[in-house]
Specification:
The protein is α+β, with helices and mostly antiparallel strands. It has two domains: 126 residues, Butyryl-CoA Dehydrogenase, subunit A, domain 3 (Up-down Bundle), CATH 1.20.140.160; 165 residues, Nuclear Transport Factor 2, Chain: A (Roll). Helix content is 52%, strand content 16%. It has twelve helices and seven strands. The chain is elongated and about 65 Å long. The termini are far apart.
Length: 295
């Protein structure tokens, strides 16, 4: 077999893993594809005859590519960190039907990368995000991550530890039973469609936080408290002609449509002890138009 063909086949075998790394690093499906493609170009230009573990080598390469992309965002002042006015950038959701069948999507939508966690990852510095994602999510040793950051292993370990504390503090353990979560989401939809304020309060945690990202075309809001969130849910339900339950990053969520099948939003639910503790809602029409949503 031609050496170039063999190398391409080995890379294709690693592609779902590399896409998963890039998605956790960047929170953008299109940028993740760009990072994977750049990794292939670097492989194609490199002599890897002495590389014993190509998968590990590729993981560090895609990590470096993503780090450079995150730093470029910051330089352009486009880094999607949570801002003082409570604006927040919702990462690109990975949408699939119930149940998910695409193996490449499966590499992206494990329970560990729910939208709530991805939102927290967006608030980390590029170096913190790299250290946390590569070590805590993909078991890359610190002595392999440190050279990517130009730091010592001990310093890199501290970065990951700091990121870990922020992640754990902002994302307490949520329910994992998909069937029960689907029941809660269905109850939320019924109550919102029926304008049943009390029924909504029954499924919303009193301290719920609802965050919406409308991009540059629509307002971005953060709302807190069951009463305010319930009122907004009822109001929004009047505009949605169709709301479909799907998997959003592996957990039951909702895609809502308006006239002519135009997507209005993707909603991701964080559910704990049978109540919704967080709603992350992407309403940016520009980004919604690029997502592979159900027809």
């Amino acid at each position: 077999m031609n050496g170039d063909v063999f190398l391409a086949e080995r890379f294709d075998a690693e592609r779902p893993h590399l896409r998963a790394v890039a998605y956790r690093m960047l929170g953008s499906l299109s940028e993740s594809e760009d990072a994977v493609q750049e990794t292939w170009l670097k492989l194609d230009r490199s002599d890897v005859s002495g590389v014993k573990n190509l998968g590990a080598w590729l993981t560090t390469v895609v990590g470096r590519v993503c780090l450079d992309m995150l730093r470029s965002r910051t330089t352009r002042r486009e880094d999607p960190l949570t801002e003082p006015d409570d604006r927040v950038r919702i990462p690109d959701p990975v949408i699939s039907g119930l149940p998910a069948t695409d193996p490449e999507q499966g590499a992206l939508i494990t329970d560990s990368v729910g939208i709530a966690l991805m939102v927290v990852l967006e608030t980390l510095s590029p170096a913190e995000r790299l250290a946390f994602v590569l070590h805590d999510m993909f078991d890359v040793p610190f002595d392999e991550i440190a050279p990517l950051l130009g730091r010592t292993s001990a310093s890199t370990r501290q970065l990951a530890s700091r990121a870990r504390r922020r992640v754990r503090g902002a994302t307490p353990p949520a329910d994992t039973d998909v069937t029960r979560k689907r029941d809660v989401v269905d109850a939320f939809l019924r109550a919102a469609r029926g304008g049943d304020f009390d029924a909504l309060l029954a499924v919303l945690d009193p301290a719920i936080t609802a965050r919406s990202d409308g991009g540059t075309l629509l307002p971005c809001h953060t709302r807190r408290g069951a009463g305010d969130v319930a009122s907004q849910a009822i109001t929004f339900a009047r505009y949605a002609l169709d709301a479909r339950v799907v998997l959003v990053n592996g957990s039951p969520g909702v895609v809502s449509y308006g006239e002519n099948g135009r997507p209005l939003s993707v909603m991701s639910f964080t559910i704990r002890h049978g109540r919704i503790t967080a709603l992350d809602i992407l309403t940016d029409p520009t980004r919604l138009a690029t997502l592979p949503l159900p027809a």
